[in-house]
């Protein structure tokens, strides 16, 4: 009959063992018996055997503890970090990046990042020199240069730096006007905060270096924010117009210089052309002077005919004053040339014109023209 069937209570292996009810074995009793065997020599197998087994157990435990102690001493310092080693709480040395070992419970290593740039912001409402309230927000960027001083020069370096930044901002804003903080004086305020912050933290020798300070925002009170926004927009427009004017000036100035150079070159060319033409006229008159001296009347008559030929080439109507008869002759050359254009070449029409001019001249000479009449004719020619 199975022990768990009805009527099989006496067959329960955990009860009635040794004449009394007994439950499952206790784990505490098992471990106590096990350690007792190591300490007493295996349950009474002899005094020499018990001592050897007990010493072996202690040795194994000590070896295991030593291995754990050695393994727990290995640590790694990253590339951007430097390790500050404290031996029994006192500074011992710096540790370079890499895999290192330290005696546990003797040395303590504190890794400090010395390459990364950290940032910290400060914001608050402050009173300006002209008794206006502005909300200013700035951000400081810093880097750790001396790990030991950063860890032990002050109790809390982050809090100390935050308080120093807040104090520097309030000092600068309190000695500045509201318009300067909100508009064109931001860069000057940023530089002043930087200088003031360095002056505050240098005596503490915190082991940090200020990399930069950013002027993130400056806002007026909500009641006058719209007016200040308009003022800032107007100043930005002013700067934009100034830049546009400077750009236009840089663009138009080379163009004007080019026009000046072109006009100067044109004037120089005109000067040379007029000079050459004048010299040509001088040469022509110098060649004509001997001919005039040899035959003045013939030369004057030839010059007159050549001049009249040039004048009549551009004239379609000619009026001839015949003083001898008191009549005025009208020659419609445009009509004559128009009628003869389909029959005669242009060269024949020009010869016809010359013939008419010669006939006119001969007629004027046959009408007892005096030298004074010729001079009057030349005077009319000059007026024409």
Automatic annotation (TrEMBL):
Subcellular location: Membrane
Keywords: Hydrolase, Membrane, Protease, Transmembrane, Transmembrane helix
Stretches assigned to the Band domain: 72-232
CDD domains the record matches: SPFH_HflK
Annotated segments matching region Disordered: 1-24, 357-384
Ranges annotated as biased composition (Low complexity): 357-373
BP term (GO), one: proteolysis
Topology within the bilayer: Single-pass membrane protein
Annotated GO CC locations: membrane
Basic and acidic residues: bias regions: 375-384
MF-aspect GO terms: peptidase activity
SUPFAM superfamilies: Band 7/SPFH domain (SSF117892)
Bilayer-spanning residue ranges: 56-77
Keyword Lyase: no
Pfam families registered for this protein in UniProt: Band_7 (PF01145), HflK_N (PF12221)
Similarity annotation: Belongs to the band 7/mec-2 family. HflK subfamily.
PANTHER family the record matches: MODULATOR OF FTSH PROTEASE HFLK, STOMATIN-LIKE PROTEIN 2, MITOCHONDRIAL
Task of the protein: HflC and HflK could encode or regulate a protease.
Assembly information from the UniProt record: HflC and HflK may interact to form a multimeric complex.
Protein name: Protein HflK
């Amino acid at each position: 009959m199975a022990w768990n069937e009805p009527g099989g209570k006496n067959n329960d292996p955990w009860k009635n063992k040794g004449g009394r009810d007994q439950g499952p074995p206790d784990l505490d009793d098992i471990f106590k018996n096990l350690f007792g065997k190591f300490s007493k020599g295996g349950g009474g197998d002899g005094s020499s055997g018990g001592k050897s087994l007990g010493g072996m157990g202690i040795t194994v435990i000590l070896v295991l503890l030593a291995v754990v102690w050695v393994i727990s001493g290995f640590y790694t310092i990253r590339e951007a970090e430097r390790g500050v080693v404290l031996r029994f709480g006192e500074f011992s040395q710096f540790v370079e990046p890499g895999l290192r070992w330290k005696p546990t419970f003797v040395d303590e290593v504190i890794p400090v990042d010395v390459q990364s740039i950290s940032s910290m912001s400060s914001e608050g409402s402050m009173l300006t020199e002209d008794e206006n309230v502005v909300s200013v927000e700035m951000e400081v960027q810093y880097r750790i240069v001396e790990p030991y001083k950063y860890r032990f020069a002050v109790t809390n370096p982050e809090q100390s730096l935050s308080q120093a930044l807040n104090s520097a901002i309030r000092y600068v804003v309190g000695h500045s006007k509201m318009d300067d903080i909100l508009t064109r004086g931001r860069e000057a305020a940023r530089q002043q905060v930087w200088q003031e912050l360095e002056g505050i933290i240098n005596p503490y020798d915190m082991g940090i270096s200020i990399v930069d300070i950013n002027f993130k925002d400056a806002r007026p009170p909500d009641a006058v924010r719209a007016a200040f926004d308009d003022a800032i927009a107007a100043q930005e427009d002013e700067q934009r117009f100034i830049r546009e004017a400077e750009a236009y000036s840089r663009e138009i100035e080379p163009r004007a210089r080019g026009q000046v150079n072109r006009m100067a070159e044109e004037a120089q060319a005109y000067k040379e052309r007029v000079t050459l033409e004048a010299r040509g006229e001088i040469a022509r008159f110098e060649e004509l002077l001997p001919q005039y001296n040899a035959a003045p009347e013939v030369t004057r008559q030839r010059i007159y005919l050549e001049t009249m030929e040039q004048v009549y080439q551009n004239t379609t109507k000619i009026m001839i004053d015949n003083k001898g008869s008191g009549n005025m002759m009208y020659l419609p050359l445009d009509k004559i040339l128009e009628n003869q254009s389909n029959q005669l070449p242009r060269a024949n029409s020009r010869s016809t014109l010359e013939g008419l001019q010669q006939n006119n001249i001969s007629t004027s000479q046959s009408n007892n023209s005096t030298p004074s009449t010729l001079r009057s004719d030349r005077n009319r020619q000059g007026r024409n």
